[in-house]
């Protein structure tokens, strides 16, 4: 019986810097971006229908998600029950240089998957600087 998480960890560990290059190329774009998303909708239309609120993502956020799936660094695991990851991202003093690339990929997975259920979660991770910290940590580990 194969463990999907272990299989993906092996694939990620076999990736080279060149495989991560599209993701790492986003670092200067993220640093130069002043907004990552805007809340839209939430209003009543002239015909009486209601437009529910939603987030419109900046191109860099959408590109990040697409690249994360294309590489792929999205790991199939029970991210909703992953307490270690929750503790890491909720600690404002956590040093992301101290975790390995697998753990970083798990954090990215949790954020991207959570965004499907909680609109704006990925945008929030960009706005807080979390995504940038994760990418810089990957970059430093691949030097």
The overall average pLDDT, rounded, is 92
* Spatial order of the strands forming the largest sheet: 1-4
Percent of residues in helices comes to 55-70%
Gross morphology is: globular
Strand coverage percent = 5-15%
The Cα radius of gyration reads 17 Å
Number of helices: 8
Q: What is the H-and-E element order?
A: HHHEEEEHHHHH
Unreliably modeled segments: none
Describe the protein's architecture and organization:
The protein is mainly alpha-helical. 55% of the residues lie in helices and 8% in strands. The chain has a two-stranded antiparallel sheet with strand order 1-4. A hairpin with a 5-residue loop joins strand 2 and strand 3.
Q: What's the SSE blueprint?
A:
Elements: H1 4-13, H2 17-24, H3 26-31, E1 37-40, E2 43-44, E3 50-51, E4 54-57, H4 59-70, H5 83-89, H6 101-117, H7 121-127, H8 130-141
Antiparallel strand pairs: 1-4, 2-3
